[in-house]
């Protein structure tokens, strides 16, 4: 876990949790550098992996944090969803890979390496593939596990969606594509949320600052990519750029009606299968 502080010694500290993933780092660049500020606050960035941030959100530890969309029903009593800052795919998303091509039927019953149990990727896989044996591991270990035979297939997130072929794997399922074909909606994978005890006015200021930070990064892509590469786990610049462009987009600026409907549909499908609860009415703060 890392901490970065935007200094304004007279202001109270506001902790922002986000992951070191290239898309998160990219969209938080202007906030981290002080180019965008939350009025009357000194921002301290708490940089942690998404599974750890999900678990911290379950205890409402951080006032503002990135989380997997799938965890939101469990934290809805404590957090509002911010309309800006979501990682959203349209027609693409997490993928299942294997050493050879397999159909959905052939994947049934297989040992599939998966990232954290609270990730949206894992929820989507359980929606689309009911019968499999999950092998939980850090997302960075999944491709090596598929290559070594420790797992028969792997659920891939982050930059692995772009470089899986170099590990000798082939794509079997694209969960984002399946979702789009069935629903016609985008798939929100990650969200930014604000704790309700901040109050609606403060949450709105945070959402607008985050939107300004995303807009700044998209307008100054090279500089924001430079910042994101500090956390890119050895990913080369152009792969990081491709990944950022996939998941930092117009939906990131504003989830809007499509994003809200997508969240409602995701939780309705998950709840109907007993995979997640219902968060009730979702209020987007903008």
The first-level CATH class name of the largest domain: Alpha Beta
Q: How many β-strands, per DSSP?
A: 13
Quickly count the helices. Answer: 13
Low-confidence stretches: none
What proportion of the residues is helical, as a percent range? Answer: 40-55%
Return the CATH architecture of the largest domain.
Answer: 3-Layer(aba) Sandwich
- Radius of gyration using CA atoms only: 18 Å
Oligomeric assembly: single chain
Q: What share of residues are in beta strands?
A: 15-25%
User: Which structural class do you get from the secondary structure elements?
Assistant: alpha/beta
Overall description:
The chain is an alpha/beta fold and 286 residues long. The chain is built from 13 helices and 13 strands. The strands form 2 sheets. Strands 1, 2, 3, 4, 5, 6, 12 and 13 form an 8-stranded mixed sheet that branches. Strands 9-8-10-7-11 form a 5-stranded mixed sheet, with helices on both faces. Helix 5 links the parallel strand 8 and strand 9. Helix 1 crosses helix 10, helix 9 packs across helix 10 and helix 10 packs across helix 11. It is globular, with a radius of gyration of 18 Å. The mean pLDDT is 93.
Summarize the structure.
The protein has 286 residues and is of the alpha/beta class. Helices cover 41% and strands 21% of the residues.
Short key terms for the protein model shown above:
13 strands, D-Maltodextrin-Binding Protein, domain 2, 2 domains, eight-stranded mixed β-sheet, globular, five-stranded mixed β-sheet, 286 residues
